[in-house]
Amino acid sequence: MVEVTITVNGTSYTRKIHPLMRLLDFLRDELKLKGTKEGCGEGECGACTVIMDGRTINSCLVLAASCDGKEIITIEGVGGAELHPIQRAFLEVGAVQCGYCIPGMVLSTKALLDKNLDATEEEIKEAISGNLCRCTGYQKIVEGVKLAQTKMKESRGEACECGRS
Amino acid sequence: MESIIFHQPRYLGEAIQLLHETPNPALLAGGTDLIIDINKERKKVETVIDLSRIEVLKTITVNEIEIEIGSMVTFANLCENPIIKQEFFGLFLCAKHFAAPQIRNMATIGGNIINASAAADSVPVIMSLEGKFVFNSVEGERIICAVEYFSNYEKEKIKPHEVLTKIKLPRKGYLSGFYKLGKRNSLAIARINAAVSLKEKEGVVEKINIALGAVGRYPFRVTEIEKICVEKPLSYLESDEVLIGLETAVYESIKNRPTMPFKKEAVKGVYILALQSALGGELNG
Amino acid sequence: MRPVSAVGASQIRPDAYEKVTGKAIYPDDLEFPGMLYAGVYRSTIPYGRVIDLNINEIRKLPGVVEVVDHTMIPGAKKHGVIFKDIPILVDDVIKRVGDCLLLIICETKEALKNALKQVKVEYEEYEGVFTIEDALREGAPIIGDASNVLYHIKVQKGDLEQGFKEAKYIVENTYFAQMTEHVFLQPECAIGKIGDDGLIEVYVATQYPHYDREEVARCLNLKDEEVRIINTAVGGAFGAREDINPQCHAALAAYITKRPVKVLYDREESIISHSKRHPMKMYYKTGVREDGKLCAIEARIYGDTGAYASWGTNVLRKSALHATGPYVIPNVFVEAFAVHTNNPFAGAMRGFGAAQVPLAIEAQMDMLAEKLGMHPLKFRYLNCFEVGSVTASGQVLASGVAIKECIEKLASHDNLSL
Q: Do the Cβ atoms of A21 and A40 come closer than 8 Å?
């Protein structure tokens, strides 16, 4: 067993775990954070996507033991009492069908827009290229990301105005 | 579950010492292959040495004559490095089109090399750029050029007590390019890949290196074809002589494989796209 | 009538809120106190029998609670949406790779993984059939009930011979459509447990909870009212969650152990276990008159329905009914066959038999248009259904036929006069 301390959604967790436990199992089984999904177990589908230190990763391909000291954001850490603009946008355009890919899609979108709010359609498609969706054909998801850009820009604008007043 | 020993050394010296002392260690780089193998029980491990904490392996350093890429540099890091984009465009393209963002953020250049897949994307690029691998162990340092490593793989392959620490690429000012033919844009395993590095003066080829991947057990350079291109005009690089040469090279390499008829044709287009990306910037989709 | 505000306005799906926040519950997200883990050992051969299984050795492995074979099923040993032919646990002949042989129930996921690895089976293997041609050969082993032809339908209209006599051009070809896998994103999972009121409960992502209830009740020899199916969020289905898959196993394991039991597949097991889109072989002969009007069509459509019936009858019926495409053809002879082989069984998948035949009929249309020297869109416009048309099966299309409008729109994009 190895001891790890991992910060997940702002809370630090210390656990003694099997050294070969995947980060995905750490999140789901140890922390009971069930929003992160397993679709393929080999990095093909992106359902288990989380953000680690600002970058998306497949949590099925990372050992929790390697994440000691890292900061992880899962779907449970996106939005709060109110939905994050990305979540709101996905709702409004109808980007959600079965929903199984959505936590990963939201996190891939967040990682993109946190770095580049002006991402082009090409860059959006690239950013979600590691996330498979079998229901939508992706069109609505891309529309959702674009709407999220608008919403995030608007709220940034509001934030600036507040700053001035 | 059996007890597994997990080491996460902070320093290279510590890792080398562990490698020296541990029988059959599994070296964990980006993990995008090893973790699947462990989880599906295709690989049995007793001791894992996780290299992800060793800062020196995660750096890219440049001096006058060469660039040194740490073995734990990820494909995302490669994409983001301005010198790689400027001077080693083929490697930039290879990294940019590698798998998908989540994999690029974890997978390392060292892992890609050591896995020694026939379709490893970075290997043809490194071969075409005359790259060398640096291995370290308690016995010291071993430097070997990429072409030699794979052409004599059984003898030269990484030893159980060694760790790949660096990839050295000479700064020769080559124009370089890369193209991968996959079944889809993202997360594709190359059906064929090709890397081209060249130097030209007033439209005449001074030097060219062409490496092909996924058309044999390991990637290789087509030196016979390279030789006949020297001192020819650039237009010669797309001539029938060169294309037929490539077709022959692929035929000879995989003549008994069912994919041979397809690959001996497809290699021509893949090479031309790699060449064009070297000469004219990105055409790589 | 009172105007309905929802009509014509985009609505937010009521389930989407839970899904964007990661709160939606799929079966694997559920845990219950004292929960066990069960899995099935699946056959690695496509056709044969089990001679010996090391069931007693498996029972002794650490963490193994129970190992269940077909003799321990209290009720029906087979299930199926139309014909009850899919074994819950094989009691007779193995008919495909992936048939369920043993149900193993363990304390932990790790113990289950280990136990499944330790199963050793001695098989008596038979020579199976893997192509439609082989299955229809005289003397072929019978994979189905009494015949390898599960289903045969004919659609006839007019006088075929006369129809082809009128033809200026005839094209004749055979087309193949491959097997397709649904790859819904959430692999199968079910949890069986005994509810507080003593009912058998199964938490599962399913397309048909009411069918599942009947099947689970039959398997356990219970009344339907003694079983409760609780449908969780469903992570995609596309037809592949129409047949029972982990439901009976989870219920059986809970019934036997009296504890909650989770059955979870990985992607590989998901692909091995559930239905596929029918691979089809489609022979087509289509005739057109000099004036561009279709005059005759002959088609024979063979669907490889694999080891079990599933929806094979309905899928091939639909193929036959859609074989003529959206076109008026006065003289028709269409036959469709669902044929058993030892391949993975085929059943429902998006389009349900109507997805394969357009490949054939539309390719025929393109070739005929070329022979006529007519624009392919114009050729379709000339022959397509409109209100009042009668289909090959005799259905009168009374309303809502908009294909002409669609073609007109397409043509206007191309500045094509129809």
A: no
Nearest 5°: the CA angle C29, C32, C37 is: 80
**Angle of helix A85-93 versus helix A102-115 axis, rounded to 10:** 130
A129-160 pLDDT, tens digit per residue, is 999 999 999 999 999 999 999 999 998 876 65
Which residues contact residue B241 at a Cβ distance below 8 angstroms, ignoring those fewer than 6 apart? B228
Average model confidence (pLDDT) across chain A: 95
Instruction: With respect to residue B285, please indicate whether it lies within any of the assigned structural domains.
Output: no
pLDDT score for C3: 67
Nearest-angstrom CA–CA distance, C255 and C249: 10
> Domains of chain A: which residue ranges?
2-77, 85-164
Instruction: Kindly report the CATH class assigned to A2-77.
Output: alpha beta
Query: Please, is C71 exposed, middle or buried when counting C-beta atoms within 10 Å of its C-beta (0-12, 13-18, 19+)?
Result: exposed
* CB proximity C183 to B under 8 Å: no
Chain-chain contact of A61 with B35 (C-beta, under 8 angstroms): yes
Residues B142 and B82 in one domain: yes
Amino acid, res. A43: G
Q: Report the C-alpha gap between B133 and B142 in whole angstroms.
A: 8
C394: three-class secondary structure by DSSP: coil
B74 and B148 within one domain: yes
Does C269 reach chain A within 8 Å, measured CB to CB? no
Distance from CA of C114 to the nearest CA of B (A): 10
- Pair B94, B121: CB distance under 8 Å: yes
**Average pLDDT per consecutive 10 residues, chain C (418 residues; last block may be shorter):** 76 94 98 98 98 97 98 98 97 97 97 97 98 97 94 98 98 98 98 98 97 98 98 98 98 98 98 98 98 98 98 98 98 98 98 97 98 97 97 96 96 92
> Residue B189's domain is classified under what CATH number?
3.30.390.50
pLDDT at B280 over 90: no
Q: Are C192 and C200 in contact (CB under 8 A)?
A: yes
What share of chain B in percent tops pLDDT 70?
98
ipTM score: 0.95
In a domain, B165, yes or no: yes
The pLDDT value recorded for residue A163 is: 43
Range of the domain at B31: 5-50
Sketch the domain layout of chain C as residue ranges: 137-181+276-413
Do B164 and B188 sit in the same domain of this protein? no
Residues B186 and B239 in one domain: yes
| CATH number for the segment(s) A85-164 | 1.10.150.120
CB contact under 8 A, A96 and C20: yes
Q: B115 and B72 share a domain? A: yes
What pLDDT is recorded for position B219?
A: 98
Chain C: closest CA distance from residue B1 (Å): 8
For residue A160, the model assigns a pLDDT of: 55
Q: Which residues of A touch C267 (CB under 8 A)?
A: 39-42
Lowest pLDDT segment from A62-76, B1-15, B84-98, C137-151: B1-15
d(CA B178, CA C244): 48
Q: CA-to-CA distance for C161 and C170, rounded, in angstroms?
A: 13
Give the model confidence (pLDDT) of A52-107 as tens digits: 999 999 999 999 999 999 999 999 999 989 999 999 999 999 999 999 999 999 99
A46 contacts on B by Cβ (under 8 Å): 100, 102
Distance CA C189, CA B174 (A): 54
Chains in contact with C, where contact means 3 or more Cβ–Cβ distances below 8 Å, are A, B
The third-level CATH classification (topology) of the domain covering C137-181+276-413 is Aldehyde Oxidoreductase; domain 4 (3.30.365)
Residue C264 host element (H or E):
strand C261-264
Q: Are residues B198 and B254 in the same domain?
A: yes
Contact B48 A57 (CB under 8 A): no
B94 within domain boundaries = yes
Residue closest to C313 by CA, chosen among C348, C275, C271: C348
Which residue of chain B comes nearest to C267, CA vs CA? Answer: B40
